[in-house]
Specification:
mainly alpha; 57% helix; 124 residues
Length: 124
């Protein structure tokens, strides 16, 4: 079942048809949707949520954070290795892409914290 319209989907078919992009060491074209990695992400998030809601339900739920870091490292190292093999890797471009991806999600935090400090100043 596809959640995206067929024209937007990047999922390769089981018969090997689909994208002609270069494949990484796992045989999956770079940028392709990886349901296995999405499943690991879901397990990691659920473990952390279970840990924070009722620590006694899943006392080792904080391991989900470690799983998330491993997944990120796997994906990022794959991107770096692929670009190094092509000869197109640039450290400045790499960090610029990370900043463009992470900063929009990061920026509300300091904004909300600064508003809270203005609305409710610290006690004297």
């Amino acid at each position: 079942m596809h959640l995206l319209p067929r024209s937007c989907s990047t999922v390769a078919s089981p018969r090997g048809e689909g994208s002609s992009r270069p494949r990484d060491s796992s045989g999956t074209p770079h940028g392709e949707y990886r349901p296995d990695i999405d499943g690991l992400r879901a397990v990691a998030v659920l473990a952390v949520v279970a840990y924070h809601t009722k620590a006694w339900v899943l006392p080792g739920g904080f391991v989900g954070v470690d799983v998330f870091f491993v997944i990120s490292g796997f994906l990022i190292s794959g991107i770096i290795l692929q670009r190094l093999q092509k000869g197109t890797f640039s450290i400045t471009d790499f960090y610029a892409r990370r900043i463009r991806r992470i900063f929009p999600a990061l920026s509300p935090g300091p904004r909300h914290l600064s508003r809270g400090g203005v609305v409710r100043p610290p006690p004297r």
